[in-house]
Here is the input.
Amino acid sequence: MRRIDYKLIEELVPEGASVLDLACGNGELLSQLIRDKGVRGSGVELSQEAVEACVARGLSVFHGDLDAGLADFGDRSHDVVILSLSLQQLRRPRMIVREMVRVGEKAIVSFPNFAHWATRAQLFFRGRMPVSRELPYQWWDTPNIHLCTIADFRALCLEEGLSILQEQYLRAVDKPSPPRVVAPNLMARIAIFAVTRS
Amino acid sequence: MAMGLGADAGSAGIVRTKRVTFDQPGQELALEGGGTLAPFTVAYETYGTLSEHQDNAILVTHALSGDAHVAGRHSANDKRPGWWDMMIGPGKGLDTDKYFVISSNVIGGCGGSTGPASENPVTGRPYGTDFPIITIADMVNAQVMLVDHLGIDKLLAAVGGSMGGMQVLEWAVAHPDRVHLCVPLATAARQPTQAIAFNEVGRQAIMADPDWRGGHYYGGRPPAKGLGVARMVGHITYLSDEAMQEKFGRRLRDVHDYTFTFSADFEVESYLRHQGLSFTDRFDANTYLYITRAIDYFDLTRRHGTLVQAFHDVTARFLVLGFSSDWLHPPYQLKEIVSALRATHKHVSYYEVESHYGHDAFLLEREKMEGIIGAFLASGARTFVRQTD
Here is the structure.
């Protein structure tokens, strides 16, 4: 599957930057950034299997729990810190956003937009917790414990005094977006934010 | 290649300890604490075959009580395989079908390399405490000479836990162009205070034994009581509260009730006594003094100011392994190494093994280490560049 979201994230990363990818999984995005953008990249990952997969790929990875923060990483030690589609799974999303802009000059966060019309419709018409391709879990087994909307994330940035450098919207991880998205909080399934501490 | 002669699949097979003596002019070992050691012998074992391009050599460094016998067995009916046999052999984490594994006994040791029990060429009698104080750097310099002797420019990897991990770090820092991959496990870049304290208790136990006689006990009765107590203390630091609770609890040994004496009523007492006693059969008390001293002196910041500066010239790629219940070298000490390496933009990965075995976990948790170490060696081998290339 061609990951359009990765492509969009890649466009937000400067050539040769030092990149920290949080919840980097098996290292697919990192490998792509190293290959295409010549970045100096490393990851943080909690799952033992995923850490092993990263190491097998020759990546530099730190086995750790994001809910414990980024104490092992120095202030402004990276150009870019990425959190791809994992914000909603963390216990303390606000803390991690703060940590990202402390450790990196720029933070890139992507997340499923809970205010997409289809999500709203499931809740409104069926009265059931939304289940979709982006959010494939039932309420009782979902790892997504802190879902938010594009409007919510903007509000958090405002409250935290963060500048939004860029916003990108997708209809799906593998579907390119139209050049201009009208009413993204209603129309986008996935949002990508680039923010910095102003 | 050593083929498994016994029934045991995955074994490095029957191996023997070899020795090389450096006694030529120019082969003196200049010691960090001053003076030289000459001549000196290094005992070592090898497993697997050195490749034509010499790009598959892995040095495994041992901890306090280890020796050169890291894998395989010394004879078909040898009951005890090498100390890290679970990790080394055909198809294992350090796959001897792919890699040429080298392991040597440290100098100052009692497993065949020159140490305090060896003959002092000046007196013709065992050194005892006339043996010079040696450091981790000295141990590594001796290993460099062994690697030279084996005709290897550059190691693919250096792998070791605890004191072995200190040697791995020393290799990376002092010989940056001679090792490509480093895997330090359950160790620290500088010996922590609490660990020095426990070592000091061990040394005091040995030196308080009247049989120690200032270290010149060879030919007489060795200070077995003192060494036994030192080992008992050390052994406690290798376990964990949880592991001890689970293994022994408050269970009594061979008795149904308290004996109301000082005999070993509790299983844990009898276990520790056994550990202490069996250790004295195979280990030299003076070596215990010298090696714990070398460990206590280990501090990469001493020569370089900070750890970040110490790692400045490092070229090796690192996989650092910590163990969750290790309280001798808790994960934060491994993370300190990782942070300093990262601060100088080195290639470093950190992996924490979830285990309740304490410090000893690096000798026990085969399944939790084998995959990641194997993956690191395999991916790292693809980036190996020879020194001469």
Observations:
- Residues 1-7 of chain B have pLDDT under 50 and may be disordered.
